[in-house]
């Protein structure tokens, strides 16, 4: 051996950390597949033709690349549930929150590094209700050579729980949205994809967990169900809980575990019986009067050497309303809090938030009961944006969201007692802004509106510590005294008890936009969601990284390659500035590919250059406005010729820009025809100032929407620009007086309307009822994909029911389709029989 090779090998042995981190590549082909369950078959969306999908294995410290190729007719995005995504929020996955969805025929490589985490998590689709079948386990092994803090198991097995509908799940939720009522519950629960033997239906078998007597196993249990918390137990065996949500816990023994959607639990199981078969059950937990799927999914624990005709030892699942069993399990959870794995609970709180979570009821003339069930946080039902929030945040795109999410409910009431008379919720795309590294306490208070209910609330981008929980109303004086700040359980999904509250703390050390929502999919759909926007820190590695090159296209930056262009020249000449101003005037904020076009008008400047210049200009105007800076270089009005063109036909252009093209989602609701070329009236200007006061500079869309309703956002922007110039030019200006001289100082506070109480239906809400093109006949599509395992090119003939292109919108009704379940089912029935295979545990990373 060459000596330098020997040195390398020696280094590798002495410093395993230097070589152990690996890059792991996965390919997820999202494809349709006909699946058989409960004596009926239907086409489902799958990853690599499997549901549950492939297990993603990695080690702590690894970088994971997953190429997701969308071969189906839905828009798709995948969420790596519980992965912290430090500074890489672009790979988090919730559609319209951190990315535009991957459109049919498109692909995206999710790239993230797993830092400081090891354990079991899950991945799932994060759009529509696709996660009903698009889900799988995410197993993070400790770094090479690092042992578990508990006795090593002989073998590890993934046990992933799910829910199965005979009907198409998109049809189920669309019907519900149309009627305003709750969606149908599932027809069965599943364990590794199998409901288990079902009466009246020839057995398709069930999952079998093979064990050898005397050996120790680790079960990585995941609840991937859409809408139900589940109990899990095994006849005749105790389970030792050692980890939840990829954080180690103090080990404790239990007969039954409780697991909410989005949660994971690792348990050790000792096969301490000689032989035999033992029933494994997954059954619903629901301790309020809400309809659930009562079916118990079953599997079998099978000792090697057991005779085939041996009777299975049975067990009764807990009653579905077994609150004491649920509470006892949750109250037993504690962080391991060892020297190696300390519980870093924030001991002080910078932001103390009190959020009510629950249902509501809003008017709806077309709905069955004249209204629709809603859900909200602090009475805000979150409206999904049409531009991804993270992009809007990173690129400072105004009008997509506001950062005024209320830290407290708008009105105090007896949350778990008599509900208020008005059950209506507000709507909005409102975020809560957090400075980098601030500490946050959130108390989630369930409300009894319509019905009290458990809410498993999931926070993206962070783990948090569950410092307390209780029944009834949270008492801000007494309850915090009982908080556990020593070894509270650390997780990413917290179960808010029915008619009670739960409190958690976290440190906002991950810049980006982070979704928080109920992990009961039905509640999320109804609006029980919000997001935090965490600002960049000032230090190194405290900023959100730029978006990846292949991030699915949005309306604002259809060609996202631009970010990777190099900055060429940071100095700007007077001439360049002038060109820049002209370009801004020509291409307004709604212009697709705006910065490319602006850059094209200034020779020698790249897209990044103009972007930076724009940011600086914006800051300048802000400072000038605030009176912090004596009028700078731009003082002389003749050199500051930022006269924005007044609506030079962009509305028409916008409308002709096809929503089927590169937009993030549905077509931007077309602005009504508004007056063009007509001078602003004094009243309009006053309304503008009110809007400016309410929404701030830049949110022209909301100012147009809620105040100056006679003007488009572009017109408002243009007007604003003139107004600010007038302000900047101040006394030096010798021009005639104008309405621009009316400033906010002239406005009496008491005349400010409160548009939130009385605002028209937000255009964003119209995305609930989009117009779909009717699908012409049964599509017959030919799709190619490579199965990563064998590399064979396959031909997929979807000569079955396919929904119309839903790529455009997440919350669409299938208009023009027959929505009756029977009709759908009939069209699903096919001769295909599919066997879903349990993932074997032998595909560990070997590096
Ligand atoms: Cu909920």
Percent helix: 10-25%
Let me know the average pLDDT: 79
Radius of gyration (Å):
28 Å
Task: Please indicate the percent range of residues in DSSP E strands (runs of 2 or more).
Answer: 25-35%
Sheet of most strands: 6 strands, mixed
Tally of helical segments: 14
Describe this structure in words.
The protein has 847 residues and is α+β, with helices and mostly antiparallel strands. It has four domains: 23-148 and 771-809 and 820-847, Immunoglobulin-like (Sandwich); 150-335, Cupredoxins -  blue copper proteins (Immunoglobulin-like), CATH 2.60.40.420; 351-534, Cupredoxins -  blue copper proteins (Immunoglobulin-like); 560-661 and 668-762, no CATH class. The strands form eight sheets. The chain has a six-stranded mixed β-sheet, with no helix packed on it. Helix 12 crosses helix 13 (713-729). It is globular and about 90 Å long. The structure holds copper (II) ion. Copper (II) ion binds at residues 455, 518, 520, 523, 528. Copper (II) ion is lined by residues 455, 518, 520, 523, 528. Residues 671-728 form the HTH myb-type domain. This is Laccase. It comes from Tetracentron sinense (Spur-leaf). Lignin degradation and detoxification of lignin-derived products.
């Amino acid at each position: 051996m060459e000596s330098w090779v020997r040195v390398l090998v020696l280094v590798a042995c002495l410093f395993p950390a230097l070589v152990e981190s690996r890059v792991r590549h996965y390919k997820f082909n999202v494809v349709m597949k006909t699946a058989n369950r409960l004596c009926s078959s239907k086409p489902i969306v799958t990853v690599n033709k499997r549901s549950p999908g492939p297990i993603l294995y990695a080690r702590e410290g690894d970088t994971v690349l997953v190429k997701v190729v969308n071969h189906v007719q839905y828009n798709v995005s995948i969420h790596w549930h519980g992965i912290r995504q430090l500074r890489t929020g672009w790979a988090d996955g919730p559609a319209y929150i951190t990315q535009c969805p991957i459109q049919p025929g498109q692909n995206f490589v999710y790239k993230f590094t797993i830092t400081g985490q090891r354990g079991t998590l899950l991945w799932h689709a994060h759009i529509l209700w696709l996660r009903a079948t698009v889900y799988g386990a995410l197993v993070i092994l400790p770094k090479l050579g690092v042992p578990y803090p508990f006795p090593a198991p002989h073998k590890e097995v993934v046990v992933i729980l799910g829910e199965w509908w005979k009907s198409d799940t998109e049809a189920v939720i669309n019907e519900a949205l149309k009627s305003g009522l709750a969606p149908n519950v599932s027809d069965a629960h599943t364990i590794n994809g199998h409901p288990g033997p079902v009466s009246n239906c020839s057995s398709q078998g069930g999952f079998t967990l093979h064990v050898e007597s005397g050996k120790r196993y680790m079960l990585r249990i995941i609840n991937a169900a859409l809408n139900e918390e589940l109990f899990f137990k095994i006849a005749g065996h105790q389970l030792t809980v050692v980890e939840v949500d990829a954080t180690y816990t103090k080990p404790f023994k239990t007969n039954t575990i409780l697991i909410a959607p989005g949660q994971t639990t690792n348990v050790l199981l000792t096969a301490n019986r000689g032989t035999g078969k033992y029933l494994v059950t997954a059954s619903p937990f629901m301790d309020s009067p809400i309809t659930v799927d009562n079916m118990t999914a079953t599997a079998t624990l099978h000792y090697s050497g057991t005779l085939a005709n041996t009777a299975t030892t049975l067990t009764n699942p807990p009653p579905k309303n077994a609150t004491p069993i649920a509470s006892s399990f949750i109250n037993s959870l504690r962080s391991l809090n060892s020297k190696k794995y300390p519980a870093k609970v924030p001991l002080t709180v910078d932001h103390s938030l009190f959020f009510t979570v629950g249902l509501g009821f809003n008017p709806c003339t077309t709905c069955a009961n004249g209204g629709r069930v809603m859900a909200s946080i602090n009475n805000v039902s979150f409206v999904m944006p049409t531009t991804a929030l993270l992009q809007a945040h990173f690129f400072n795109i105004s009008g997509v969201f506001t950062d005024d999410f209320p830290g407290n409910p708008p009105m105090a009431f007896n949350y778990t007692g008599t509900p208020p008379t008005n059950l209506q919720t507000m709507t909005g795309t409102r975020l809560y802004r957090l400075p980098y590294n601030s500490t946050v306490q959130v108390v989630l208070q369930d409300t009894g509106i319509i019905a009290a209910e458990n809410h498993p609330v999931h926070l993206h981008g962070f783990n948090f510590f569950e410092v307390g929980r209780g029944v009834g109303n949270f008492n801000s004086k007494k309850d915090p005294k009982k908080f556990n700040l020593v070894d509270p359980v650390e997780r990413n999904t917290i179960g808010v008890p029915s008619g009670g509250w739960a409190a958690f703390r976290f440190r906002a050390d991950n810049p980006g936009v982070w979704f928080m929502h109920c992990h009961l999919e039905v509640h999320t759909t109804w609006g029980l969601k919000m997001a935090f926007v965490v600002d960049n820190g000032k230090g190194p590695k405290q900023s959100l990284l730029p978006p990846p090159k292949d991030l699915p296209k949005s309306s604002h930056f259809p060609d996202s390659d631009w970010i990777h262009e190099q900055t060429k020249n940071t100095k700007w000449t007077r001439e360049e500035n002038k060109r820049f101003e002209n370009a801004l005037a020509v291409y307004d904020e709604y212009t697709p590919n705006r910065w490319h076009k602006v850059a094209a008008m200034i020779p020698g400047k790249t897209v990044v250059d103009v972007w930076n210049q724009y940011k600086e200009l914006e800051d300048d105007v802000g400072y000038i406005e605030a009176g912090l800076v004596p009028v700078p270089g731009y003082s002389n009005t003749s050199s500051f010729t930022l006269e924005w063109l007044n609506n030079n036909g962009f509305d028409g252009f916008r409308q002709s820009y096809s929503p089927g093209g590169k937009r993030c989602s549905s077509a931007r609701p077309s602005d009504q025809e508004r007056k063009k070329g007509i001078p602003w009236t004094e009243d309009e200007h006053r309304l503008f100032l009110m809007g400016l006061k309410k929404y701030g500079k830049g949110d022209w869309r909301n100012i147009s929407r809620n105040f100056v309703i006679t003007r488009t956002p572009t017109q408002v922007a243009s007007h604003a620009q003139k107004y600010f110039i007038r302000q900047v030019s101040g006394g030096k200006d010798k021009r005639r007086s104008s309405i621009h001289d009316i400033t906010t100082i002239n406005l009496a506070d008491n005349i400010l309307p409160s548009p939130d109480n009385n605002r028209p239906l937000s255009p964003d809400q119209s995305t609930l009822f989009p117009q779909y093109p009717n699908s012409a006949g049964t599509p017959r599509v030919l799709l190619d994909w490579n199965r990563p395992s064998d590399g064979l090119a396959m031909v997929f003939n979807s000569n079955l029911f396919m929904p119309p292109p839903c790529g455009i919108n997440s919350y669409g009704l299938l208009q023009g389709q027959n929505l009756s379940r029977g009709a759908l089912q009939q069209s699903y029935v096919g001769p295909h029989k599919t066997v879903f295979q349990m993932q074997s545990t032998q595909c560990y990373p070997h590096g």
